[in-house]
Design goal:
The structure is a homodimer.
Chain A: H1 17-30, E1 52-57, E2 60-68, H2 72-79, H3 85-99, E3 103-113, H4 118-135, E4 138-146, E5 160-170, E6 186-191, H5 200-209, H6 228-233, H7 240-247, E7 254-259, E8 276-278, H8 287-294, H9 299-305, E9 310-316, H10 321-330, E10 335-342, E11 347-349, E12 354-356, E13 363-364
Parallel strand pairs in A: 3-4, 8-11
Antiparallel strand pairs in A: 1-2, 2-5, 3-5, 6-9, 6-10, 7-9, 8-10, 11-12, 12-13
Helix pairs in contact in A: 3-4, 7-10
Chain lengths: 365, 365
Amino acid sequence: MTQSHTYAAAGVDVAGEGAALAGLLGWVRKSHAFRPKGTMGHLGVDVGYFASVLELTPELGLAVAADGVGTKILVAQLCDRYDTVGIDLVAMNVNDLVCIGAEPISILDYIAVEGLDPDMLEQIGRGLYAGAEQSGAAISGGELAQIGAMLRGARPGKAFDLAAVALGTIHPDKVNLGAAVEPGDVVVGWASSGIHSNGLSLARRVLIDAEGAPGLDAPLPGGAGETVADALLEPTRIYVKAALELLRDESVEVTALAHITGGGFQNMARIASSCGYLLDTLPTPPAIFQALAAGGVPTKDLYEAYNMGVGMAVTVRPGGEERALEVARSHGWEASVIGRATAEAGIKLPGVGLQSSGEGGFKPL
Amino acid sequence: MTQSHTYAAAGVDVAGEGAALAGLLGWVRKSHAFRPKGTMGHLGVDVGYFASVLELTPELGLAVAADGVGTKILVAQLCDRYDTVGIDLVAMNVNDLVCIGAEPISILDYIAVEGLDPDMLEQIGRGLYAGAEQSGAAISGGELAQIGAMLRGARPGKAFDLAAVALGTIHPDKVNLGAAVEPGDVVVGWASSGIHSNGLSLARRVLIDAEGAPGLDAPLPGGAGETVADALLEPTRIYVKAALELLRDESVEVTALAHITGGGFQNMARIASSCGYLLDTLPTPPAIFQALAAGGVPTKDLYEAYNMGVGMAVTVRPGGEERALEVARSHGWEASVIGRATAEAGIKLPGVGLQSSGEGGFKPL
């Protein structure tokens, strides 16, 4: 018998996030007054978009984004394997940066550890290096904090946390917030490499901890022979070089890029245009998501927590879709047209009967 | 009867840090190849200095630094008071930035929480705002991660961690690594506001947890009536505006600035000059450090873990010391000449009979 698992029940209160953040974000936004426009100040990109931009000069904007790896780290500990989470860390940040059109140049990492484990740290470093290479950025610095009293882990002595900030450059006139998206624009989905770095609490619970769960070392149900551990730890795909290639191709007008992370396709609601998105040709969800469904996660929860096979949603003017597909394929991953922009706001997934305004989760369509 | 507490015994292995980091730092340094000079690359400032610098244009350098608050967060939890640690977070980062002469423009924070506590988050935000105001920087973005399964706290439901990256601007030709320090240069100490954000594990153990310790609510022994809690939570002083004022004063040549954090005066060994420092007129340590000594912390451990009353060591050409003192006092804090640069390398503290090469801790003088 399968059990039902909801995202909130797995320890992450997504719905409550907005209200809980209001006080904090009020102070953050107010601080922008200390750097008004013309003094290396903000370019009017809200902290809620994929990245913020500081105008350093009229010709040079600095895009900034912050993110962590989250509980994928616990899976790494369970597997005693630490050379992939550094890639996830870089990926989560640089994929956000490139959404506004910025070219990543630098990453700064924060590594909090229970104890100084040279081999574990070396493996983390190896992943950071691989992620930096895939994004064309340098790791410019970081902090290693020994705060054992503040951390919990899944393996004695190996508790740690990872977060980072990524920096990129962009001409201030070229910041892409998706304001130009028009009804009829085509949405191309670039395939994810798995569940990336979101929803791991729920996935751990369903695939490892639950009664009757396959467990870490079992083959992933429906997979190509990889274990559950391999499937869960698969590093987040880095879309930077493909995205920059497409953005620089003058034959295509890329009207928006949306990194599909926690919240799933609801991330497209961040796009500045008043359009909505009808995603009526989504690909069949890869095996890992089918295994989560088979483990009892309701469809609504799946689509609220996971990328469901699409890691980057690329919106282009009609006619640009062929190039958007080609670029992805030339980088070695699958891509398909997943839908189009609509005059009506909201994200609609008719294939699974769900819709969302971008806040408060998906509802029946 | 007092007990002896060493820094290592309080859970932080300072001596082992170098070796444990070697593998990680190897990958970090190697990643700099992805951004060679002329491509928004690194300016040759090693990741071990207070901040790194990326050369965005021949006229514009971007200084970057990362740091966290560490276990001061546990003290905040014990006190159920969260409006000061945001100041500490900003301070630890911007005080590093200004050491190389950079002007902070932006801060990105990472807040990891056990649960979404709106009031706690609002208080953290208030501190971030105050720190941003004191440093003239905007909080440009951040990440709030709910990772309860990875955190431990001192109060149920209130576990959290705080880290940040600070960004500043500096002309690439003006990056100050202290290479110009010469024997005879005068070292002025700008007073700290307390123990700042280092050595809190040891302080907590000695002043709160140990048998016979005064405890959080007792008056600080030798203090001015403040409680141990108040003394421990006193926010880290932000030296940015004073430092920038002094750096811009053409009547003074500031040859080095060293933020005195974990490692104490050994931080001065980071200064690029081959000089050493004879600190023979250090101020009397403030009450908090005397209380730690009375609690059994050996002198060597005190000077290895704490600022001992000096939060920023400002090295100037002889004749500049009066201005360095005045600027600090005009900002409302004490300052005094604490020593001078010497031809012989190493940091010497004759008043307490200690010396250090900058690595491996203090030894008897």
